[in-house]
Write a structure and sequence with these properties.
Elements: H1 5-22, H2 27-34, H3 38-45, H4 53-63, H5 67-79, H6 95-106, E1 109-114, H7 125-135, H8 140-153, E2 164-170, H9 171-175, H10 181-194, E3 200-205, E4 218-222, E5 231-235, E6 240-243, H11 246-262, H12 266-276
Parallel strand pairs: 1-2, 2-3
Antiparallel strand pairs: 1-4, 4-5, 5-6
C-alpha cells in the first residue's frame, strides 16, 4: 500500500470505482440503491469527498464484498484522513500542489522533463528563492516557507526507500541565469552532486537535438504496487493537471522515452554542466 495519505485516498477511490464497474453499475444506479445521490458516489470514487466508515459498510453490503476487503477499505479510509508533513506549512502548499506532494512522497519512480527551470527536487535553496521571489506575490514569510517545503521534499532522494528519479532538462534551463553567477554555480554543483546518486539520472537535451516530442514540462509518477497506476502531472502558476487515463500515460511515456534517446548521455550531460561552471 503506497505510503502517504494522498496515495491512500487515491487507492481507496480506485477500489471503490473498480467495485462498481465490476458490478456493471453506474453511479446513479448505486446512489439510487443506497438512497444517495449519484454525485455522492462519484465524489467518493474521485477522492473529492471524505469517506466515512458507514459509507464503506453500505457499499460493501451492497456489492457483497468479503469481510477482509471491507476492513481493508476502512483502513484506507482511516489512513487517508491523516495529515502529511506538508500540511504544517499551511498556505505555502496550495491545495492543487498538496496533492502532488502527497503523490510524490509515495512514488517509487519519477520521470520528469523540464524546459524552463531546474526540477524542484534538484534546486538549491538560492535558486528556489530567486524563482519564488520572481513568480510569487506572497508575503516574504510565506516565500520562506515555500522554500522550506521544497528543500524538505528533496530528502526523498536519499531516504531508505528512495524513488528513482530520471530528470531530463532542456539545455536552455541551464543557460537561463536565475539570480546571479554565484547562484548558478551553486546550482550546477548541486546537479553534479545529485547525479552521483545511484537512484538519480540527469540528462541534458541539447539545443542541436532538433525537434522533440514535448510541448512543456511534465512528470510521470510511478508507484510500488500494481493497483496504483501511473499518473502524469503538469502544473502552472495557479493550478495543475493530473492525467490518469491509460492512453494519456502511454503517450507521455513514449514522449519521455523519445526524449531520453535524443538527450545527451548522463556522462556527457555532466560534462556540459561542468563546462558551464567555467
Amino acid at each position: 500500500m503506497a505510503g502517504s495519505p494522498t496515495a491512500r485516498r487515491r487507492r481507496l477511490a480506485i477500489e471503490l470505482k473498480r467495485l462498481r464497474e465490476d458490478n456493471k453499475l453506474t453511479c446513479n444506479d448505486v446512489g439510487k440503491a443506497l438512497d444517495w445521490s449519484g454525485s455522492k458516489v462519484n465524489r467518493l470514487e474521485t477522492g473529492q469527498g471524505r469517506v466515512q466508515p458507514s459509507d464503506i459498510d453500505a457499499l460493501c453490503r451492497f456489492y457483497e464484498t468479503s469481510d477482509d476487503l471491507r476492513e481493508l477499505l476502512k483502513e484506507l479510509a482511516k489512513q487517508s484522513k491523516t495529515r502529511g508533513w506538508w500540511h504544517a506549512y499551511g498556505s505555502a502548499v496550495p491545495s492543487w500542489f498538496s496533492v502532488y506532494v502527497g503523490l510524490e512522497a509515495a512514488a517509487s519512480s519519477l520521470r520528469t522533463y523540464e524546459c524552463e527551470f531546474v526540477p524542484g527536487l534538484l534546486q538549491t535553496e538560492g535558486y528556489a528563492r530567486e524563482l519564488h521571489l520572481a513568480t510569487s506575490q506572497s508575503h516574504p514569510d510565506d516565500v520562506e516557507r515555500m522554500i522550506a517545503v521544497r528543500m524538505k521534499r528533496q530528502a526523498l532522494l536519499t531516504c531508505p526507500h528512495a524513488p528513482t528519479l530520471w530528470a531530463i532538462m532542456h539545455e536552455s534551463t541551464l543557460r537561463h541565469t536565475v539570480g546571479d553567477k554565484d547562484v548558478m554555480c551553486a546550482q550546477y554543483e548541486r546537479l553534479l552532486d545529485v547525479a552521483q546518486l545511484k537512484n538519480v539520472t540527469v540528462q541534458v537535451l541539447p539545443f542541436d537535438a532538433g525537434s522533440y516530442p514535448a510541448t512543456g514540462a511534465y512528470t510521470i509518477l510511478g508507484f510500488p504496487e500494481q493497483e496504483d497506476p501511473d499518473i502524469v502531472y503538469r502544473d502552472g502558476l495557479t493550478d495543475a493537471v493530473y492525467l490518469e487515463q491509460v492512453e494519456d500515460i502511454a503517450c507521455y511515456a513514449r514522449s519521455f522515452d523519445d526524449l531520453r534517446a535524443l538527450a545527451l548521455s548522463p556522462r556527457r550531460s555532466s560534462n556540459v554542466i561542468r563546462q558551464l561552471m567555467t
